[in-house]
Design goal:
The complex is a heterodimer of chains A (593) and B (348).
Chain A (H helix, E strand, L loop, with lengths): L3 H11 L16 H17 L3 E6 L6 E5 L5 E4 L1 H4 L5 E6 L4 E10 L4 E7 L8 E2 L10 E6 L11 E14 L8 E7 L11 E4 L3 E9 L12 E5 H12 L7 E2 L2 E5 L5 E6 L4 H4 L7 E5 L2 E2 L3 H8 L7 E8 L2 E8 L1 E2 L3 H9 L33 H4 L11 H18 L8 E8 L4 E6 L3 E5 L4 E5 L16 H19 L1 E10 L4 E10 L2 E7 L6 E7 L7 E9 L6 E9 L2 E14 L5 E3 L6
Parallel strand pairs in A: 7-12
Antiparallel strand pairs in A: 1-2, 1-4, 2-3, 3-6, 4-5, 5-6, 8-9, 8-11, 9-10, 10-13, 11-12, 12-13, 14-21, 15-16, 17-18, 17-19, 19-20, 22-23, 22-32, 23-24, 24-25, 26-27, 27-28, 28-29, 29-30, 30-31, 31-32, 32-33
Chain B lengths: L4 H20 L1 H16 L3 E5 L10 E6 L5 E5 L9 E5 L4 E10 L4 E5 L21 E6 L12 E13 L12 E6 L12 E4 L4 E5 L3 E2 L6 E2 L1 E4 H12 L26 E3 L11 E4 L4 H4 L7 E5 L2 E2 L3 H9 L6 E8 L2 E8 L7
Antiparallel strand pairs in B: 1-2, 1-4, 2-3, 3-6, 4-5, 5-6, 7-8, 7-10, 8-9, 9-14, 10-11, 11-14, 12-13, 15-16, 17-18, 17-19, 19-20
Helix pairs in contact in B: 1-2
The chains are: A alpha+beta (593), B alpha+beta (348).
Chain lengths: 593, 348
């Protein structure tokens, strides 16, 4: 049996190169390699369209960014835009330079949101899921390292994921890189703020920082990027135009001798304390992750904005407790605002020295094009203390409130409200709300409340945390609107566990009492209200479910009231009567409108 | 072939079935391999903490387990210059580590922790790498990983296989032997002692100490092949190159020999572990005749590693008067051997 034909067949099947003759040396490449290369080229070609080269209005500095939606919102590092003031210029791969304005800033996490102008439909990146990343995954960064992209074509560097959930200590600034992605793809000065993509071209992180040591500021194979999942958590708050703060638990932890993570100190006025956490308790899970070291806890904390509620599991005296904790603020407000104003604190990307610049070109942007910020930028900017750009807060506040107003008749009702129905657990109820009274009839007794000259601290009925007051404020938001309710702002987005979604949140102050109003992100139904009669206390929570009715006349068919960790009552309304100022009666039961 | 058509057909079909999928999924197979390699290698890696703590002389480095009982292979460096060495395993457990021995010629050190049933590399089963071969490194560069966090993984290729001569300069090493030069940046603080593997997880080498070329000031990214390191490890395990803790000392019969008998005055022994530097050499002494000089560092006496003045005095004191002592000295990055005849009673 001749084996030579067999060998030939085998080689053909496996695609191995046939032995070349002596007179020529050829190498044939495995088709799978060629296919992988072609795919990589295609992915990078698509990804580069969304990459942005960012410059200050005067052409100084430089960094990178990535557009994430077709209307021109783009992500970058805080330290890239901090020296720019509120206006930037952005070059994209289409060869054009676009004007951009700052929207929101997160100094601690080193993230900023900007908005580009000048195009109807910006190419944008697909958002990936950074929690699915594994060490060893291929990844590529795109951006403007060393400001090489004179034609705005971004530089691509390829590597692998070297580590995930890495923690980087604040290095003299307030920048704390928690839960970051480590890569050996070359990240150099100028890459900051730019995207890190996975193999499929999905955005999985924003490049931020590197380890530099004996070679100065050039890549030594260690770059750290902010995970996109963290950025998405902050995105709502960034859109609100704020200078966003990170979170703390209100407690410190350390490792004990047995390696358990235990509470080493705790603030008594923190939400964690109110949820039952005490000194020496062992923390086992936080934010859905197993916690085995203090760094692991810091990593989880770093990805959430202050005020978010996050699940926490701990062991106390042998018993396990699962609670939802409201995160406290990490910094005082002044600390953060000063960061934005201070240019010197954050080093801008060094200009290329004259030696490296090609002859005849000293700056990437000609001086003639740089005057005061463009009109479109100025018209989208409104300064206000505590905000990077108040204009966008107003924009989102109006968006949420106007959609609520147009889709839900409750949103415009003044006059008296009368809601009646049954209680879960038996019995009926009737609620009557006017502009200065609130009366709640329950099976055993009736609670009422009258507006004194000021709202005061009536937290009636007992055990509800202030239900009557909260109902009154609900009516007032509807009746008065955001302009007359008091000081109402857009807060951002936050998880609403009762409804299992990320809600739009408005924050309103009326006579010193703070309320959070949670709206459905799709249709702006009012889903929940939290009323905080004072700082550092549990709110009264009202949750609205099962909106139904004809279009434009939605009413909630189930209203749950919670205070602390306890459900106070669940109301199931079946009748809504509203008398507006002109004494027209709107009665859901009769369907007369 | 024509005689057995049926067998041939069957053989070809079987071959097709086996080989055809391989042709198209070569890439997929390679992709699956890297995750398995990372998962299998990380448990064998160790974070080492010891002496140091200045920029350029960090107090941490990397190491790898080479026995289930806790032998750790790493580089011999300033980090190990203390009695308090800590090894943190991949699962976060901390152990006190003891320096068993070191080979100053190859900059290799062996530590031991008190443990059992640990996942480890088998250094008898290592492979060589070809130029252009794709490699993976595991190391704790910049000390990023702490506790139970896994070491950092980098990728690259072997750029060249060559020989390294002894270097001078800030980061001295007497290493003189074959190395793999890599195209990934391995000369970072904390990386020395890390593992170099191929993509299938086979151990190829150990990342070397940070080295700089004194002429062009470039930093070298390199690893030492395990095959050469293995010889050092075997020497250490067979009782050579040990520190004095593990060697039974033979008490001398006569009066104890001292360094001044040899004409050498050492630096004052004021630290917990004073490095054994020569301070002064007496004129007309045997040491001066052999050109032993001040600032020489005594590294070994015969085959025993000498990490401190105390252990030098102990070792010298146990030498029989009639012996010739082989002293190994580190001077300007080079290792030099001297055979010193101990003075007899009459000479003194």
């Amino acid at each position: 049996m001749k084996t030579a034909p067999l060998i030939a067949i085998t080689m053909l099947l496996t695609g191995t190169p046939l032995i070349a003759s002596d007179s020529e040396v050829t190498s044939s490449v495995n088709q799978a390699v060629l296919d992988a290369e072609a795919k990589r080229i295609e992915v990078i070609k698509g990804a580069k369209e969304a990459v942005v080269a960012i410059f200050g209005s005067d052409g100084e500095g430089g960094g990178s960014g990535v557009v994430i939606s077709s209307d021109g919102y783009a992500l970058t590092n805080f330290h890239v835009v901090a020296p720019c003031g509120y206006a930037m210029k952005c070059g994209m791969a289409d060869g054009n330079l676009y004007n951009a304005v700052i929207v929101g800033a997160d100094p601690t996490g080193d993230v900023a949101l900007i908005k580009l102008f000048g195009r109807e439909n910006f190419p944008h990146a697909q958002i990936g899921d950074s929690d699915t990343l594994q060490v060893g995954d291929w990844t590529f960064a795109m951006g403007n390292p060393f400001l090489l992209a004179t034609d705005f074509q971004p530089t691509a560097t390829y590597g692998i994921i070297s580590g995930v959930h890495r923690y980087q200590y604040p290095a003299g600034t307030i920048l704390e890189y928690t839960d970051c992605i480590q890569t050996d793809a070359s990240i150099n000065p100028g890459n900051s703020g730019g995207p890190l993509f996975n193999e499929a071209g999905e955005l999985i992180a924003i490049n931020g920082r590197c380890s530099f040591e004996k070679r100065g500021r050039v890549s030594v194979g260690v770059g750290y990027a902010i995970s996109i999942n963290q950025v998405i958590n902050f995105l709502g708050h960034l859109r609100s135009g704020r200078i966003v703060d990170h979170a703390t638990l209100g407690a410190n932890v350390s490792s004990d001798e047995e390696g358990r993570v235990v509470v080493s100190s705790i603030l008594e006025n923190s939400d964690a304390y109110r949820r039952g956490l005490r000194y020496d308790d062992e923390i086992i899970r936080f934010g859905g992750r197993l916690i085995q070291t203090p760094n692991a806890l810091k990593n989880v904390l770093g990805i959430y904005p202050k005020g978010w509620r996050v699940p926490l599991s701990f062991i106390q005296s042998g018993r396990r407790h699962d609670v939802l904790v409201r995160l406290e603020a990490l910094h005082g407000q002044n600390q953060l605002t000063n960061q934005l104003a201070k240019r010197a604190k954050i080093l801008p990307i060094p200009k290329p020295s004259k030696d490296k610049t090609p002859p005849g070109q000293t700056k990437l942007i000609k001086k003639e094009t740089l005057k005061a910020p463009a009109a479109v930028v100025r018209s989208h900017y409104q300064p206000k203390y505590g905000y990077a750009n108040y204009y966008f807060n107003k924009l989102n506040l109006d968006r949420v409130y106007n959609r609520w107003k147009s889709s839900c008749v409750l949103a415009s009702l003044s006059g008296s409200w009368q809601i009646s129905g049954s209680l879960k657990g038996g019995g009926d109820f009737r609620l009557t709300l006017t502009s200065d009274t609130c009366e709640l009839e329950l099976p055993d007794r009736t609670y009422d409340w009258q507006l004194p000259p000021e709202l005061g601290y009536s937290l009636s009925p007992p055990g509800s945390g202030g239900l009557l007051l909260t109902l009154h404020l609900w009516r007032q938001l509807a009746a008065l609107g955001i302009n007359d309710f008091g000081d109402v702002k857009y807060l951002g987005t936050a998880p609403l566990y009762s409804h299992d979604l990320l809600a739009d949140v408005l924050i309103g102050y009326r006579d010193g009492i703070k309320c959070h109003f949670y709206f459905d992100p799709e249709d702006s139904d009012l889903l929940a209200i939290e009323m905080f009669p004072e700082e550092n206390c549990d709110p009264c929570e009202i949750l609205f479910f099962d909106y139904s009715g004809e279009a434009n006349k939605n009413f909630p068919r189930r209203i749950e009231v919670r205070y602390g960790d306890v459900s106070y009552a669940t109301f199931m309304p079946n009748s809504f009567k509203f008398e507006n100022e002109s004494n027209e009666t709107l009665d859901d039961n009769k369907r007369s409108f | 072939m024509l005689q057995r058509p049926k067998q041939l057909a069957a053989f070809t079909l079987v071959l097709l079935a086996i080989l055809a999928p391989l042709a198209t999924t070569g890439v997929a197979k390679s992709v699956a391999t890297i995750y398995r390699t990372i998962a299998q290698t990380q448990p064998k890696m160790v974070k080492i903490y010891g002496a140091g703590g200045f920029r350029g002389m960090e107090a941490y480095q990397s190491g790898m387990l080479i026995s289930p009982d806790g032998h750790i292979l790493t580089v011999w460096s300033h980090v190990l210059d203390t009695d308090y060495i800590t090894a943190t395993l991949n699962d976060g457990r901390n152990f006190d580590a003891k320096l068993v021995g070191a080979d100053p010629y190859l900059d290799v050190a062996l530590l031991k922790i008190d443990a059992e049933n640990l996942p480890c590399f088998d250094i008898k089963m290592t492979v060589d790498a070809e130029i252009g071969e794709r490699i993976i490194t595991f190391s704790n560069l910049f000390g990023v990983a702490t506790g139970n966090e896994p070491l950092s993984v980098q990728h690259g290729i072997v750029s060249v296989k060559t020989t390294l001569d002894a270097r001078r300069g800030k980061f001295k090493t007497p290493y003189c032997g074959p190395i793999y030069v890599l195209d990934t940046v391995t000369n970072n603080p904390g990386a020395p002692g890390g593992a170099l593997t191929n993509r299938s997880g086979q151990l190829i080498g150990m990342l070397g100490k940070e080295l700089r070329n004194s002429q062009n000031h470039t930093w070298l990214n390199y690893a030492m092949p395990i095959a050469d390191i293995r010889k050092s490890v075997e020497k250490i395990c067979s009782g050579q190159l040990l520190t004095e803790h593990d060697k039974t000392l033979i008490k001398s019969k006569g009066q104890n020999l001292t360094m001044s008998d040899l004409g050498i005055t050492m630096v004052p022994d004021v630290l917990q572990r004073t490095p054994p530097y020569v301070d002064h050499v007496q004129s007309s002494s045997a040491a001066e005749k052999l050109d032993i000089r001040p600032d020489d560092l005594i590294v070994m006496i015969d085959d025993q590693l000498i990490p401190s003045c105390k252990s030098l005095n102990t070792r010298i004191g146990s030498i029989d008067r009639e012996e010739t002592v082989r002293i190994t000295i580190l001077r300007d990055g080079k290792l030099l051997d001297f055979n010193l005849r101990t003075p007899s009673e009459a000479d003194r």
